[in-house]
Structures are given as structure tokens and as C-alpha cells.
Amino acid sequence: MPTIADTAPADTTFRAASLELSGIELAFGTNKVLRGVDLVVPAGRTACVIGPSGSGKSTLLRATNRLLEPDAGDIRLGGESVLRSNPDELRRRIGMVFQHFNLFPHKTVLENITLPLRKIKKLTPEGAVEAARIQLELVGLREKESARPGNLSGGQQQRVAIARALAMKPEVMLFDEATSALDPELVKGVLGLMADLASAGMTMIVVTHEMGFARQVADQVAFMDRGVVVEAGVPEKLFTAAESPRLQQFLSQVL
Ligand code: ADP
Ligand code: MG
Predict the structure, then answer these.
(1) Is 153 within 8 Å of 186 (Cβ atoms)?
(2) How far is the CA of 101 from the centre of ligand 2 (A)?
(3) For 127, which of 18, 163, 228, 236 is 20 to 30 Å away at the CA?
(4) Which residues line ligand 1 (CB under 6 A)?
(5) Which atom, in ligand 1's list, is nearest to the CA of 60?
(6) Which UniProt keywords are given for this protein, alphabetically ordered (predicted)?
(7) What three-state secondary structure class fits 150?
(8) Contact 123, 117 (CB under 8 A)
(9) Contact 208/214 with Cβ under 8 angstroms?
């Protein structure tokens, strides 16, 4: 299968931007879930976020593309604050892939990708189909364009979700445990696709339990616990010379 990196003519290119989160705070009622998160991802780099369940990882990703509004802090995309911009515009620039795919079950694979292209990007029907097919080709699912999501494997559904996000030409991609719902034999293919995207130069934040992926693909790994980034650094350092006791304990449980 061609990789994203070696099939990158005009239509499959993207313009990746830097992403800086600073002092992000967010509470649900009295539950302060994010308590001042800082994370800087230079353009074209991949940050993996690891940490225990309930530490605020999903909330952080949702706050980053403003599916949830932060109470405090700043989000800078390509150096510019986007907290006061139009949230729909922001979600065009920051693509997101969820654990449970979030595809429309009654639409075909092709329609799942063309719908947002037409509604949000205002492409013509023909333009949307053309753009969608290019992305489907890239994720190896061109022959599945007429299938419904329910007739695909979890791995194929997640590839469609990734293709749908990429078709919007985002400058940053967020992945929230994109392989956690997949059968073990399907995990590798989706991780491989994500690794290809990282080496093709996309800016990515990847929340994952896949420590092997974090080790091999991440430029930076951030460990979150109780609403803050407790420790961050290059994978080699984080996995072999963790400083904080909380990270040491976490790693002893997952490695
Ligand atoms: P993680 O992804 O690291 O497991 P989450 O960001 O999903 O953590 O959750 C962090 C905390 O925020 C948890 O205590 C969770 O119960 C709470 N939380 C998450 N989403 C909501 C919500 N929509 N309403 C209320 N509380 C929420
Ligand atoms: Mg989560």
C-alpha cells in the first residue's frame, strides 16, 4: 500500500501549523478537570499524551478544538490565538479522530467524507467526491466507498474517520485513543497509518495507551495526571529516566 509520505502529489499535501496550549483550565461544575495545561507542538511534530484514566486527556483534546470551551488559558495555532475565533472555523483547521469513529451509520463511506466537505468546506458535489476518493485511496479503502460503516471492520471504520478528517485539509490532527476500541489484530494497521501521517509532517497530538507507538513515533511525550502535564520530554528520556514518582508508578503499571 502506498504511504502518505511517498504518494504526496498536490492533492494530498497539507500545511501543518504549530499548536501551543498554555494554562488551559476547564471545570465541569465544581470538578476542575484541567488545571493549567501547557503543551507546545511545533509544526510537523507529534506529541503523545499518556496518563491514567480520568486525568483529563480527552477533555484536553476537546478543549483544543473547542468542542468544550476552556475557562482559562490560550490556544495558539500557527502562532495566533484562536480562542476568540469562530469555533467552526477552528474545527476546520484542527481535525479530530475519536475512539468510537463517530461515522454516520446510515450513510455510505463516500458520503461520510463528502458530507462535511460540502457542508463545511462548501465544495461542489463533484469536488467533494474527488477529494474524498483521494483520501480513501490513501487509507487503502477506495473499493469500500459504497459500503456502510456497519459492514466494515473497526480498523476500516477508523481509516474512514481518518480519511474524513484529512479531507478537510487540517493543519493539526488530534487522535483520542484511536485504536482502543479495535480488535488487537486491527490495531497495527491504524497505528501504521498514523505513523505515516506523522512522518509526512502533520502536526499531531495523540492520546494513546500504545507505549510502543509513543516511543517510536512521538517527538515529545507528555504525561498527564489530575489535570496537569506532570512531566514531558523526548520518549527516550520519559520512558527510561522518568523523574516524577507519579510517572514512574504509571510506567511500572503499563510497561
Ligand atoms: P481521560 O480521557 O484522561 O480518561 P477525561 O478527560 O475523559 O479523562 O475525564 C476527566 C474527568 O472529567 C473525569 O473525572 C470525568 O468524569 C470528567 N468529565 C469528562 N467529561 C465530562 C462531562 N461531559 N461532564 C462532566 N464531567 C466530565
Ligand atoms: Mg479519554
Answers:
(1) yes
(2) 14
(3) 18
(4) 28, 31, 33, 51, 53-59
(5) 6
(6) Amino-acid transport, ATP-binding, Cell membrane, Membrane, Nucleotide-binding, Transport
(7) helix
(8) yes
(9) yes
Which residue has 484541567 as its cell numbers?
34
Q: How far is CA 77 from CA 21, 41, 104, 139, in A?
A: 9, 10, 29, 26
**pLDDT-based confidence at residue 11 (cuts at 50, 70, 90):** low
**DSSP label at 226?**
T
Look up residue 161 and give its amino acid: A
CA dihedral 31, 37, 41, 45 (to 10 degrees): -50
Q: Which of 32, 49, 59, 224 should be mutated for ligand 1, with most atoms under 8 A from CB? A: 59
How far is 185 from 188, CA to CA, in rounded Å? 7
Residue with CA at minimum distance from ligand 1 atom 20: 59
The β-bridge partners of 81 are 76
Distance CA 185, CA 54 (A): 27
Structure confidence by residue, pLDDT tens digits, 86-124: 998 899 999 999 999 999 999 999 999 999 999 989 999
**Cell numbers placing 24:** 488551559
Give per-residue burial for 80-97: e unless 16+ CB within 10 Å, then b: eebeeeeeeebbbbbbbb
Convert the pLDDT of each residue in 32-78 to its tens digit: 999 999 999 999 999 999 999 999 999 999 999 999 999 999 999 99
Report the amino acid identity of residue 166. L
Whether pTM exceeds 0.90:
yes
Give the C-alpha separation, 53 to 248, whole Å. 16
